[in-house]
């Protein structure tokens, strides 16, 4: 029995080791389509102006929002309701003027539905429960590409009392899932393209070269690196759609530049794995003075003519940071060495930002330091 378990152990261990190594190898690679975009394949932004009705007294005040008043009157006139003579009596609070925005995805066809976002343009306090009326959505060329309409969902509420208010999320912005119908298509014939440009989302010459090499190994010499962001693919005589589909599934190992990103507002520090430090000595210490006042009450003795008095008691504590020592980071120190050394000094995120700036100023930080 023990011999069988020992034999099983030595059989399973290499399989487990191979499995873990394959997971590590796969974690270091990504698909080409996950880090690139194709030239011409993009969304188009749409915008429109419309009215939201059905609000529970939270709409625009028509005496303040003149554009809401004029839009409502014009819409009613188009529907055959003439209120020009009675417009001075138009005092509804259930209507709001809104701006409607949407993104038209690539390869959208007539009849497809897209999501829209509705935002108050006047002094409406909430769009909850409202309904967007028919709103044409135009692109930058002035043409109407979609028409939006539907009930809003704001996922917000506001409660107001005599002395306090509570608001969750933003009640003046709403969302309509599938709230617009595409009326016009953006022409783009992907199958007729003889050349296609693949654009890297994070430009890097090494990554672009690896993409071109991976494509050439499978399809032959059809990929050319034009610049750190662009790889040109020759699709002459090939099925463009099928070739691009296979290219998108190819695995590569992207290269990342050595960079340290610091957000001073929140004290956040992000370091890349390729950050290296030249030989440098680091010491960190702060002078902290703490003054504590603990006054005491002194009572006179029994049957005496003394008076009760308050006696001041002051305690002063000084911390010179003497427990922090000088640390030396050898040349070629990695990210792990840097973080471990600074943590050994008891350095917090705020002080670490100052140390990184000083190391960069000394020329010992072999990485790009980006402050935000």
UniProtKB/TrEMBL annotation:
One Pfam family here: FlgI
Subunit details: The basal body constitutes a major portion of the flagellar organelle and consists of four rings (L,P,S, and M) mounted on a central rod.
Coiled coil: none
Keyword Cell wall biogenesis/degradation listed: no
Protein name: Flagellar P-ring protein
Encoding gene per record: flgI
Family: Belongs to the FlgI family.
GO molecular function: structural molecule activity
Organism: Neoasaia chiangmaiensis
Native organism taxonomy: Bacteria, Pseudomonadati, Pseudomonadota, Alphaproteobacteria, Acetobacterales
Signal peptide: 1-27
Primary role: Assembles around the rod to form the L-ring and probably protects the motor/basal body from shearing forces during rotation.
């Amino acid at each position: 029995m023990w011999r069988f378990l020992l034999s099983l152990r030595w059989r399973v261990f290499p399989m487990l080791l191979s499995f873990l190594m394959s997971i590590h190898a796969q974690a270091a690679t990504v698909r080409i389509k996950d880090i690139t975009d194709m030239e011409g394949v993009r969304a188009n932004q749409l915008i429109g102006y419309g009215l939201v009705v059905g609000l529970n007294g939270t709409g625009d005040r028509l005496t303040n929002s003149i554009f809401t008043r004029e839009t409502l009157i014009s819409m009613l006139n188009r529907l055959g309701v003439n209120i020009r003579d009675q417009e001075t009596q138009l005092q509804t609070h259930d209507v709001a003027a809104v701006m409607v925005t949407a993104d038209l995805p690539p390869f959208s066809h007539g009849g497809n539905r897209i999501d829209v976002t509705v935002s108050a343009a006047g002094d409406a306090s909430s769009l909850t429960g409202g309904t967007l009326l028919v709103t044409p959505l135009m692109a930058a060329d002035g043409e109407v590409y979609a028409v939006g309409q539907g009930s809003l969902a704001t996922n917000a509420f506001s409660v107001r009392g005599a002395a306090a208010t509570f608001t969750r999320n933003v009640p003046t912005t709403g969302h309509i899932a599938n709230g617009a119908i595409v009326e016009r298509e953006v022409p783009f014939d992907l199958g007729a393209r003889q050349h296609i440009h693949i654009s890297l989302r994070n430009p890097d010459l090494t990554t672009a070269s690896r993409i071109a090499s991976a494509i050439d190994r499978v399809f032959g010499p059809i990929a050319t690196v034009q610049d750190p962001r662009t790889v040109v693919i020759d699709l002459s005589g090939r099925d463009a759609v099928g070739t691009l589909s296979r290219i998108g599934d190819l695995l590569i190992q992207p290269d990342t530049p050595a960079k340290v990103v610091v957000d001073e507002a929140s004290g956040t520090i992000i370091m890349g794995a390729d950050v290296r430090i030249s030989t440098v000595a680091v010491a960190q210490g702060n002078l902290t003075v703490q003054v504590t006042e603990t006054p005491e009450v002194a009572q006179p003795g029994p049957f005496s003519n003394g008076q009760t008095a308050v006696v001041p008691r002051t305690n002063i504590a000084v911390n010179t940071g003497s427990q922090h020592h000088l640390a030396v980071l050898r040349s070629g120190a990695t990210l792990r060495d840097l973080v471990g050394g600074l943590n050994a000094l008891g350095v917090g995120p705020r002080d670490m930002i100052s140390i990184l700036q000083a190391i960069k100023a000394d020329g010992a930080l072999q990485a790009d330091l980006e402050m935000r």
